[in-house]
Fold:
Amino acid sequence: MLILLSLTKVAKGQYEGIIYADVILKDRSIVSGAVRWSGGQLLWTDILLVSKKEQYALKYLTRNQINALSDQDEGIDWEFMNLWKDKLPERRTELLCRFGDIASIHVTGAMDAQIFLKNGSKLRVVTDSRENRHLGKDITVFSPQSRKVAWNSISRVIFKSSPDNFNPFNADLLYGTISTSQGELSGFIQWDKIKFLTSQRLEGKLNDVERTDTEYPFNMIASIEKRDKGAIIKFDSEKKVFLKNNRDVNASNHGIVVMHPAWGRAIVDWEAFNSVRFSKMPKDLGYASYRSPKRIYAVVKTNEGEVVKGNCIFDLDEQWNVELLEGRSNSISYQIPFNYISNIKVISDQESRVTLKDEKVLTLHNHNDVTSNNWGIVVLLVNSKHRYIPWSKVREISFK
Structure:
C-alpha cells in the first residue's frame, strides 16, 4: 500500500490512532516513528495474534476434569503424562489483544518474543501457526521516511504516545458510524479491510457500459448507503451517485472493519451492512486511552444455583481484562475486551447472550468463547484455593 508522507503540521489528535514506538535495535541505535507491523497492523486498535507458551491453567484441574475435556477434542494426544508437553489445541494458548494494550515487545528469537502489558505483566509468546505474519517478520517504521527493520535486528519495541508534531500521512484516518442489522457501531473504519485513509479511493461503475471504474477519494464522501446490488454515494456537496460492479460497493466486499478503544472490534459483512456516515475522529483515542490491564474478576452462577466469586481464568485461557472475547452474530464478527462486558448468559450449547457496558445485548455463537467448546472457568479463591467450573455447569457470568 502506498503511504504518502507530509511535513505539514497538523493537530496531534488527527493521528493519535496510529501505532507509535521507539524501536531499539541490537546495535543500540533507536528508530522512532509510526509503525506498520508485519501483519499490516497500523492502528492501536489492530490485533496482535500469537500463542502463549505457558499453559499453567491445567494445573488447577484434576485428572478426571482433564479427561472430560479430552472428549471435546478428538484426535489430540490426551495421554495424561503428555499434557505438559505442549499437546493442547492451538486455541487454548491464544493471546489476542490490541496494540494499544501493549507496553513493549522484547524479541527473544526468530519466531518468539516476550510481551509486556501496560501493568508490567510478562507473557512469553510464539508465532501462531494459523497467522504467522505477526512475529518473526520485518516491520516498517515511518521516521518520517519509510524504513524496513528486520526482525532479527530488533532488541525491543517500546510503544508510546505520539509526539505533538506527529504527522505521518497526507490524509485523515477513516472514522465514522456504521449502521448494521444490529444497530450502530462508531469507530475507526477499514473499508474492504484495506482502505483506512481519506486519501484512498472508493471504486465502482456508474453504468453497465462503463469499461473502467470511477474512483472517488473518501475525503469527498459524506456517506455510503447499500442499495440493490450497489451503493448510493453521497458527497459533502450533497451530490449523489450510484456505484456498482466493484467489490467496494457490492457483496464481494471482504468486510468493513470498525474499531474503537472502548468496545473493541467488529467485522461487518456486506449482508449486515446498511450504511456509513463519515465524521472527524474525536480526540483522546490514542495510546493513553488504553488502560492498564487488570485480572478478570467474575461472579459465576451455576445451574445448581451456586454463586462463586473471584479473579478468574476464562476458557482456561484468558485472564486479563484486555484480552478479547470472540463471537459472531447476524453476519458480524465481534472481538470485545472483557473490560467492556457486563454479563454473559448461556442460552444453549451453541450460543450465549452477551451484555456490554453500554447495555447493548448481543447473541453470539460460532466461537469457543460462547459455546459448549468453552473449556470452563477457574475461579481463584482466597487462601490460595480455587474452583473449576465446567462450561456445562455455567448459567451466568457477571464481570466486575
